[in-house]
Amino acid sequence: MKKAFYKSIPVMAGYIVLGMGFGILMRNAGYGVVWAASMSLLIYAGSMQYVGIGFLTGGASILTTAITTVMVNARHLFYSISMIDKYKDAGRYKPYMIFALTDETYSLLCDGETPEGVDPNRYRFLVSLFNHSYWVMGSVIGSLLGAVLPFSTEGIEFSMTALFTAAFTEQWLSTKDHVSADIGLICTVLCLIVFGKDNFLIPAMLLITLVLTLLRRREEEKE
């Protein structure tokens, strides 16, 4: 448990801050701590929860909500494929680990490395659980603070950018093979230029997946 906690520490600050932002916005929209805690516990979808606030206040239809949710979270379809082999023997932990596979949890577990003498499945489960608990904790704190103190949420979205930058830097420094990272950067910048900042994410994920798949096939053919 201790090693899983240490692994999750980089995510803690980002999730608590972003969770607080969500809780504050929920409170400002007229939804109390029970709503904030329930959404973070049962939905646990980060950016989609922020979008969901507008749906709640604007009375969006179920169809609109469903389509938007698929679009916002479509990136999960791509990177979760690489976790199939790691999760296939997870047993009782598997359902929760699938549910709790967020961007940040993926960044911590995608290398497949686990400490020596530790059950890999239990380790991944605990990392996922700790990250989830930070998000719920931040949402509750934000909702409670939002009830008594005025807050400006301007600029809070930069916390997610900082979190991804820190996770990327840690992985870059801890590995010697940077091919996958270079491919990700090049494909992302290319799609950003071609499709623009509002539409580049899904094309970038598709292109990264395609290039990595082709690269993997070439490596397998060499073997």
Compact summary:
With 223 residues, the chain is mainly α. It contains twelve helices and no strands.
Secondary structure layout:
Elements: H1 2-28, H2 33-42, H3 47-58, H4 62-72, H5 75-79, H6 84-87, H7 94-99, H8 103-109, H9 120-146, H10 158-174, H11 179-195, H12 201-222
Describe the protein.
This protein has helices spanning 2-28, 33-42, 47-58, 62-72, 75-79, 84-87, 94-99, 103-109, 120-146, 158-174, 179-195, 201-222. It is an all-alpha fold and 223 residues long. It has a domain at 2-152. It is globular and about 60 Å long.
Key words describing this protein structure:
single chain; 223 residues; mainly alpha; globular
Euclidean distance between termini CA atoms: 38 Å
Report the order of strands and helices: HHHHHHHHHHHH
Number of strands: 0
Residue runs with pLDDT of under 50 for 5 or more positions: none
Radius of gyration: 19 Å
Estimate percent helicity: over 70%
Question: How much beta, percentage-wise?
Answer: under 5%
Mean pLDDT, to the nearest integer, reads 83
Number of helices: 12
Described by strand count, sense and barrel closure, the largest sheet is:
none
